[in-house]
Amino acid sequence: MATTTRLPDEEFVPSEETGVRDECPLPVTVIDAEAGWLGNSLRELWDHRELVYFLAWRDVKVRYKQTALGVAWAVVQPVFSVVIFTLFFGRLAGVPSDGVPYPLFALAGLVPWTFFSNALTLASNSLVQSAGLITKVYFPRLALPIATILAGGVDFAVTLGILAVMMAWYQVKVTLALLTIPLFVLLAFATALGVGLWFSAINVKYRDIRYTLPFLNQIWMFATPIVYPSSLLPEPWRTLYGINPMAGVVEGFRWSLLGVGGLPAMIWVSVGVALFLVITGAIYFRRTESSFADVI
Predict the structure, then answer these.
(1) What values do phi and psi take at 192, rounded to 5?
(2) Statement: residue 54 has pLDDT above 60
(3) How many Cβ atoms are within 10 Å of 172's Cβ, its own excluded?
(4) CB of 204 within 8 A of CB of 292?
(5) What rounded mean pLDDT belongs to the chain?
(6) Which residues are CB-contacts of 74 (< 8 A; sequence separation ≥ 6)?
(7) Residue 139: φ, ψ to 5°
(8) CA 88 to CA 21: how far, in whole Å?
(9) Contact 228, 89 (CB under 8 A)
(10) Which residues of 233-266 are buried (b: 16+ CB within 10 A; e: fewer)?
(11) Beta bridge partners of 227
(12) Distance CA 121, CA 166 (A)
């Protein structure tokens, strides 16, 4: 954030009635976005880290306000999805699940996917929904999409608890691979942030994004190995499947929690793609940030 202080341009002369010089008005302070490379935005964001916390807490309180079930919706949605997937894909279609009970297999994929899908939707609409705030006061705009994604951590914790209960029900043996879970959560966060930065900045100018997102989420879900295992694909296609970073996240979750297969090579491809999305999304967001208040 760049702050400059200057005096008004007009000159002050003595009053004709009293002959005494009028009181000089206060200086004018101009607050504007700091020009420079992306590192400046990151330093500015760190200085406003408390703002990110309060924005995230605001989103958490507002999300289930005036709802009959409240946070229970975080339980209802994945549970019903698992029931439907198990009935149609596990029983009727006979989709394999790599030797894991299909309900557990599907839920292990739905937990990270639900977090990503909700985070992407909220981050993409974060700027438009905060138009009144953007046009009234200056703050690092990166705080908005980041805060909405962090707010989704509450729902993610709830669904992860459901998965832990199902793992205990099916008596799944936990290994040291469980310690890698935070890495795959970080990968899902990076993917949602990268795409969310692109979409949120584009959504300021073109409101088509809100119509595109539901369609994109539906296609992306079936392009991710949630209801089927990626082992159905032979190499090298399975590794190239990591171009979809959520494929690496889902397979990583199943490997660390359920011990399904080894650590697939696609994860490294997914990490590279996620980093690319975050870097390019942040650069594009930074270049268009100065026009948000005028266009939104």
Answers:
(1) -65, -40
(2) yes
(3) 18
(4) yes
(5) 84
(6) 154, 155, 158, 159
(7) -160, 160
(8) 85
(9) yes
(10) beeeebbebbebbbbbbbbbbbbbbbbbeeebeb
(11) none
(12) 28
